[in-house]
Amino acid sequence: MKRLIDHIHTLLENCQALILHTIYVQVRALNDTQRIFIQNLRKARRKADLTQATVAEKCSLSTYYVTEIETGRRFPSIDTLQKLCEALDIRPYMLFLSEEDSFRFLDTVRDELYLGRLKQSIDEVFEKYH
C-alpha cells in the first residue's frame, strides 16, 4: 500500500511539473502586450475577490473560456473585453498598462490634480483680492 501511495505521489509531482512547464512555455510564447493583459486581468479578478466562475457568470461566458483567456490560449473580442471590465469594475485601458506605465500614469494624474488644485487656489486668491 505504501508503495502505491509513493507511486501516486510521484505521479502527482510529475503532473505538477508538466503543468508548470506547459504554462511557462505558453507564457514565454506570448508577446508583451498579451502577457501584460493576462497579468492585469488576473490581478483585477483577484483584487475584486472573484473566482473565474463568478466572472464567467457575470459575463455570460463559460468558466472554461475565462480560464482560456487567463492562460493566454484565447483572447477576448472587444465585446467580451467590455463585459470582463464591467464584471471587474475597471476601465479597459487598465488591462493593457504595464506596471511601469501604471506608475507613470499615476504620476501624471497626481501632477494634474496638484496643478488643478494650485490653479483653483490661485483663482480663489485672485478673486478675493481683485
Distance between the termini: 92 Å
Shape: elongated
Question: What is the name of the CATH architecture of the largest domain?
Answer: Orthogonal Bundle
Number of domains: 3
Radius of gyration: 23 Å
Could you report the average pLDDT, rounded to the nearest whole number? 80
- State the low-pLDDT regions, or none: none
Strand content: under 5%
Oligomer: single chain
Class by helix and strand content?
mainly alpha
CATH homologous superfamily of the largest domain - what is it? lambda repressor-like DNA-binding domains
Biggest sheet details: none
Count of separate DSSP helical elements: 6
Q: What name does the CATH topology of the largest domain carry?
A: 434 Repressor (Amino-terminal Domain)
List the helices and strands in order. Answer: HHHHHH
Helix % is over 70%
CATH class of the largest domain: Mainly Alpha
In total, the number of strands is 0
